[in-house]
């Protein structure tokens, strides 16, 4: 019963539930446009060791193409300005998990999970919003469906 109560409380928490309104970002970015040009998630979002996080792209990644593409765009000029000052764009993070949860993007990708399993149809979006449900309940349901462990210690450190 206690485990169900914890599950209910955590699945209702604000950080995990979908929010269907894109936040204001420093420059507009269309995943739909970039995927249409042949880029994949891994083209821009790197997964440095030990593999927990997928990085938000640095301006140098963007400038790899935009040093010569759409240079007359005010948005690209803003991007270039940040890059030239060796500053990162202050992107508003869409997804985050609490510090008491262990989550490895690498382990999930190696197990066959796709980005859209948790993040929704990013490749079809001109502006991102928290589309996917990353609540404890949603994670446990996925673990159940994929026969992954739902033991508390699998995702949480013992206290």
Detail the topology: elements first, then pairings.
Blueprint (H helix, E strand, L loop, with lengths): L1 H10 L19 H6 L4 H4 L14 H8 L7 H11 L20 H6 L4 H5 L16 H11 L5 H4 L4
Helix pairs in contact: 4-5
Structure overview:
There is one protein chain. The protein is an all-alpha fold and 159 residues long. It has a domain at 25-132. Helix content is 41%, strand content 0%. It has helices spanning 2-11, 31-36, 41-44, 59-66, 74-84, 105-110, 115-119, 136-146, 152-155. The two termini are 19 Å apart.
Oligomer: single chain
Structural class based on helices, strands and sheet pairing: mainly alpha
The chain-level mean pLDDT equals 89
**What is the H/E string?**
HHHHHHHHH
Distance between the termini: 19 Å
Poorly predicted ranges: none
From the alpha carbons, calculate the radius of gyration and give it in angstroms: 18 Å
Strand content is under 5%
Number of strands: 0
Helix content range? 40-55%
Q: Major beta sheet, specifics?
A: none
């Amino acid at each position: 019963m206690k485990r169900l109560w914890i599950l209910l409380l955590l699945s209702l928490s604000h950080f995990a539930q979908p929010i269907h309104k894109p936040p204001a970002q420093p420059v507009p970015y269309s995943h739909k446009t970039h995927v249409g040009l042949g880029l994949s998630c891994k083209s821009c979002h790197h997964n440095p060791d030990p593999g927990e996080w997928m990085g938000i792209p640095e301006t140098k990644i963007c400038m790899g193409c935009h040093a010569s593409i759409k240079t007359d765009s005010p948005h690209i000029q803003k991007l270039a300005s940040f890059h030239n000052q060796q500053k990162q764009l202050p992107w508003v993070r869409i997804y985050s998990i609490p510090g008491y949860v262990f989550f490895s993007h690498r382990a999930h990708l190696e197990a066959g999970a796709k980005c859209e399993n948790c993040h929704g149809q990013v490749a079809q979006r001109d502006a991102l919003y928290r589309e996917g449900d990353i609540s404890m309940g949603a994670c446990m349901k996925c673990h159940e469906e994929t026969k992954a462990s739902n033991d508390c210690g699998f995702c949480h450190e013992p206290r």
